[in-house]
Amino acid sequence: MVDEIKIWLRGDPFQIGFNSRYLLDVLIVIESEDIKLECKNSMSPTIIKSTVDESFLSVIMPLRVEW
Question: What pLDDT sits at residue 34?
């Protein structure tokens, strides 16, 4: 399954894939509709931050995906 979201990107664009269960586990506990994802490339750990609660931080690893 592929889903797309709107983003504001700084740097060069790339595609990244996540285990949907891991991503949903993080999104369920964030109390904001907007989040901040920080990643360097498609295989680096991704930091997920809340735009409302500055103390919230989660890290997930992307999956290697053949596009």
Answer: 87
Question: Quick one: average pLDDT of 13-36?
Answer: 91
Give kind and range of the element (H or E) at residue 59.
strand 57-60
Gap between the Cα atoms of 25 and 64, Å rounded: 20
Q: What is the pLDDT of residue 29?
A: 93
Neighbours of 64 (CB within 10 A): 8
Question: Is position 2 within any domain?
Answer: no
9-18: string of b/e by CB count within 10 Å (b at 16+)? Answer: eeeeeeeeeb
In a domain, 24, yes or no: no
